[in-house]
Design brief:
The chain is α/β, with parallel strands linked by helices and 281 residues long. Helix content is 38%, strand content 20%. The chain is built from eleven helices and 15 strands. It has helices at residues 20-23, 32-46, 51-58, 62-74, 96-101, 104-116, 130-138, 152-161, 183-189, 215-226, 265-274; strands at 48-50, 79-81, 84-86, 123-126, 146-149, 165-168, 172-173, 180-181, 194-199, 203-204, 209-212, 228-234, 246-250, 256-259, 277-280. The strands form four sheets. It has a seven-stranded parallel β-sheet with strand order 6-5-4-9-12-14-15, sandwiched between helices. The chain has a three-stranded antiparallel β-sheet with strand order 1-3-2. Strands 10-11-13 form a three-stranded antiparallel β-sheet.
Length: 281
């Protein structure tokens, strides 16, 4: 039995209720990516789906479904439980060490694409999060930047690798990820009006609401949004399936969205209507 298999099913499920995945018709064989997207959709609809039901629906072995669920869990798109998969938590994010290694190549591509849209000799906010950190890593080739951040990892990278002017917001340092948070942080950030803001989020709802887990972190991001001339949102595709509980803002506040896969049709439509540019790295 794997470590993932030992995790109990979420208590909210009623085992007497039929699993709608079982009742659905057997689908035509799908490619790996399409099948995993369909698994995510099925779990979002039900809240939980068993391995056996998914294997029957998609016409593959239970071993294949286990691999799919493990991959989707590693990407943060689903939570792996004993016997199946469920929705990821809406109240708790993965730890920083895990997030740093998840989709690192994709985040690097996103970071490079976003950094390429930031000119030399301008001012930039860089937010908390592993994808904004990837943007900071790609900014080291620039010249003449002034960077304001509440992320100690960003500050250390840029102060060590460049001659940029780096301003670190005051406040309380959160253990584990180097985030600086609190009222003093917001007060410091509000003193600036910068050319570009690079922000990250933990989830995007289908109506375009930007979401995160921590209220203090959200307050800092909202301050950044209110004091930048242009907002660059950087987030990988797993954020399309996550629904944290704290509202950051709306896609309509974003000028350009950088990601690694095409967004779902509904989000793509919302971005077109709001005039948000989407760049896929």
């Amino acid at each position: 039995m794997t470590k993932a298999d030992s995790k109990p099913e979420p208590a909210r499920l009623d085992p007497l209720k039929p699993d709608p995945v079982k009742a659905g018709p057997k689908l035509e064989p799908l490619g790996v990516d399409a099948r995993r997207e369909a698994i995510v959709a099925a779990v979002r609809q039900r809240g939980f789906a068993t391995i056996e039901a998914l294997a029957t629906t998609f016409g593959v072995t239970v071993q294949t479904i286990r691999r799919d669920l493990n991959e989707l869990s590693g990407e943060g798109r689903l939570e792996r439980y004993r016997g199946g998969g469920g929705l990821p938590s809406s109240v708790e994010n993965a730890d920083y060490a895990s997030r740093r290694t998840q989709l690192s190549a994709e985040k690097c591509r996103i970071g490079e694409r976003a950094a390429a849209r930031i000119p030399d000799h301008c001012s930039v906010f860089v937010d908390i999060g592993t994808t904004p950190e990837a943007v900071a890593n790609a900014l080291v080739a620039h010249t003449g930047l002034s960077v304001v951040t509440n992320n100690l990892n960003v500050a250390l990278t840029l102060s060590r690798e460049t001659e940029f002017r780096v301003v670190v917001a005051g406040g309380t340092v959160r253990s584990g990820d180097g985030a600086v948070l609190g009222q003093q942080t917001c007060d410091t950030l509000a003193q600036f009006r910068v050319d570009y803001a690079v922000i990250g989020i933990s989830g995007i709802d289908t109506d375009g609401t930007l979401l995160d887990f921590d209220f203090e972190e959200v307050r800092a991001t909202q301050t950044i949004l209110a004091h930048a001339k242009a907002v660059y949102l950087v987030a990988d595709h797993t954020k399309f399936a996550r629904r944290p509980m704290v509202k950051v803002g709306s896609l309509a506040q974003v000028h350009t969205f950088f990601t690694d896969r095409e967004p779902p049709p509904e989000l793509a439509r919302l971005m077109r209507e709001a005039g948000v540019v989407c760049e896929v790295a």
